[in-house]
Design goal:
Elements: E1 3-7, H1 12-28, E2 31-38, H2 50-81, E3 89-95, H3 98-108, E4 113-118, H4 124-128, H5 132-137, E5 144-148, E6 158-162, H6 167-183, E7 186-193, H7 201-210, E8 216-222, H8 226-236, E9 241-245, H9 249-256, E10 272-275
Parallel strand pairs: 1-2, 1-4, 2-3, 4-5, 6-7, 6-9, 7-8, 9-10
Antiparallel strand pairs: 5-10
Length: 277
């Protein structure tokens, strides 16, 4: 049984992602742990006495508890509307930094999977410029499904996977393969061979031979327009979820924030499954 962590601020973006979390819990016959994390703002006023801080803290904590108590029944209603009343759901209200709390729960509650909504200014731009999800994405050691704002859940048939044929890519592919088998879906792997690529044909053929009996298909496309190729790959290969390693922040920014591409970041209207490298 998979344990799925769903961090939420009870926004519309998070509520939309909750449906994805429910459906993943159905697929994996798992349980949901809902996390609402809140920060206490630092007090910089030198004339602010400790007893005043206690009052402010208690007031903030009570307000967060009231919000939590008010919103949880709404989540249960969503579960009922998706015929998921049988799924076990527990709740955590935690004060402190979101990333710290997520990592703490991953260890304490033995979390297998994280599902989280990503908000937008221009959708992915905000995601990688410092949104909660953007901060979390590079720091987790379990798979994380990032759901862009407005992307509704639909049945998954194909998972896309980007690779550069490195050892850590293969490790990640095995993780994705395990998920794909439980979901009974196909994997399509994409390698964009640029003019600077150093992967030889023998390496690619060895991967194809190793995964020959698995539901995996490999695509090697020669181009220096990595971003555009990936966007086209998503469109023309009917990719429902795109999976990739948690590369450096600059890689994500270069891939998803529009600069000169014919398409824009908002064209990436599917969830991203991030695998820890």
């Amino acid at each position: 049984m998979k344990r799925i962590l769903f961090p939420t601020d009870f926004s519309d973006v998070a509520t939309n992602a909750f449906v994805h979390a429910i459906e993943m819990a159905k697929i994996f016959q798992g349980e949901l742990i809902v996390l609402h994390s809140y920060d206490v703002p630092p007090i910089s006023d030198p004339f602010f006495f400790p007893e005043n801080f206690t009052q402010v803290y208690d007031s903030l904590e009570l307000a967060q508890f009231d919000l939590f108590k008010e919103e949880i029944p709404k989540l249960r209603e969503i579960m009922e509307s998706h015929n998921a009343e049988h799924i076990k759901m527990s709740h955590r209200l935690m004060e402190g930094n979101l990333i710290t709390n997520i990592n703490k729960l991953i260890k304490e509650a033995q979390i297998d999977f994280v599902v989280m909504g990503t908000s937008d200014t221009t959708e992915w731009e905000a995601f990688f410029a410092g949104s909660n999800s953007g901060s979390v994405i590079l720091g987790l050691e379990v798979p994380m499904l990032c759901v862009p704002e407005g992307v509704k859940f639909k049945k998954i048939y194909t998972i896309g996977f980007t690779t550069r044929f490195r050892a850590k890519d293969k490790k990640a592919l095995f993780t994705v393969l395990e998920i794909a088998k439980q979901m009974k879906v196909q994997i399509k792997c994409l390698y964009v061979k640029t003019s600077n690529s150093d992967v030889d044909l023998k390496t690619i053929e060895s991967w194809e031979a190793e995964f020959k009996q698995e539901p995996i298909e490999f695509f090697v496309i020669q181009s220096d327009e990595i971003k555009q190729v990936m966007l086209d790959f998503i469109t023309y290969q009917d990719i429902d979820v795109l999976s990739m390693l948690a590369y450096k922040r600059s890689f994500f920014e270069g891939l998803f924030i529009p600069v000169y591409s014919k398409k824009t970041a908002s064209d990436i209207s599917i969830p991203i499954l991030v695998i820890h490298a």
